[in-house]
Amino acid sequence: MVRGTYRKWFLSKKRSFEIHFYYTPVKKKIIDYKSDGVTLYILGLGQIIGDDVSSIQVWAEEKGYTTSHILK
C-alpha cells in the first residue's frame, strides 16, 4: 500500500490518496491495484501490471510517500 498527498499544480490544494497493490508472493509481480483519490496517470505512473513490486517501493521512497505491506 502506498499513501501520501499530491498537488495537481503549485498553487492547488493538497489531496490525499491511497493505492493498494496486489502481487504474487513468489515472483513479486503486480497483478492488480485499487486506487482511492487519484489515478496512476496523475502520479506519473504508466502501465504497472506485470512490473516488479520493488520498483513501486523505490518510486514511493523517492517521492516521500509512505508504504506498508500486508502478507496473507
Descriptive account of the structure:
- With 72 residues, the protein is of the alpha+beta class.
- The protein has one domain (2-67).
- The protein contains 2 helices and 4 strands; from the N terminus they run E-E-E-H-H-E.
- It has helices at residues 40-43, 53-63, and strands at 2-6, 15-23, 30-36, 66-67.
- It has a 4-stranded antiparallel sheet, with helices on one face.
- A hairpin with a 6-residue loop joins strand 2 (15-23) and strand 3.
| Rg, Å, rounded | 12 Å
Uncertain segments? none
Series of secondary-structure elements, N-terminal to C-terminal: EEEHHE
The SS-based structural class is alpha+beta
- % residues in beta strands: 25-35%
What is the global morphology?
A: elongated
Estimated helix fraction: 10-25%
| Total beta strand runs | 4
Topology:
Blueprint: E1 2-6, E2 15-23, E3 30-36, H1 40-43, H2 53-63, E4 66-67
Antiparallel strand pairs: 1-2, 1-4, 2-3
Features:
21% helix; single chain; 72 residues; 4 strands; alpha+beta
Overview in brief:
With 72 residues, the chain is of the alpha+beta class. Helix content is 21%, strand content 32%. The radius of gyration is 12 Å and the shape is elongated.
